[in-house]
Amino acid sequence: MKKLLMLVLFLTPCLVGFNSCSDDDDDSKPTGSLAHEWKGDYNDPLDPGYRASFNPIEGKWVRDTNPFKWMICRRGEDGKLYMDFYANRGENGGLTPERTSRYGINDEAYMLYDEKDKPLSIWLYTISGNVLTVQLTDQTHATDIYTYTRQ
Fold first, then answer.
1. In this structure, which long-range contacts are made by residues 64-70, counting pairs with CB atoms below 8 Å and at least 24 apart in sequence?
2. Is the pLDDT of residue 134 over 90?
3. Are 149 and 64 in contact (CB under 8 A)?
4. How many domains does the chain have?
5. Residue 18 placed within a domain
6. Which of 7-16, 25-34, 45-54 has the highest mean pLDDT?
7. What CATH number is given to the structural domain containing 90?
8. In this prediction, what percent of the chain has a pLDDT beyond 70?
9. What's the Cα-to-Cα distance from 131 to each of 23, 55, 57, 82, 128, rounded to whole Å?
10. Is position 16 within any domain?
């Protein structure tokens, strides 16, 4: 009986110690609980929806609720898409860069990537005339809706 008890006491930490709490091999989706299934990047030649030079949000955009926040969507020299965020510091202050993020885009959403090219967030978008409306798909920030006007 003592041997059985010793065996159980010895094996219990082994079972607990070798269990994994999560799968950290899947880096293909952003973290957080997403309400949107990513359809792919239409600028990626390997994507079934590939469209050469697809970038409907290209250009300079000013946030409607805060005219001091600007966003410039562009294609870099490497052929990838980048979103530059700026804060306008007034007439004499000019534009101050805040950050740059690479992004992928399809016909309904764009995905931002961090500096290591890991998916960061997915934003749904619509364009009506010169107005861009974007909404973060992370359910914890579902009210994050912004409108921008093309400049």
1. 64/131, 64/146, 64/147, 64/148, 64/149, 65/146, 65/147, 70/95, 70/151
2. yes
3. yes
4. 1
5. no
6. 45-54
7. 2.40.128.50
8. 71
9. 40, 15, 10, 19, 5
10. no
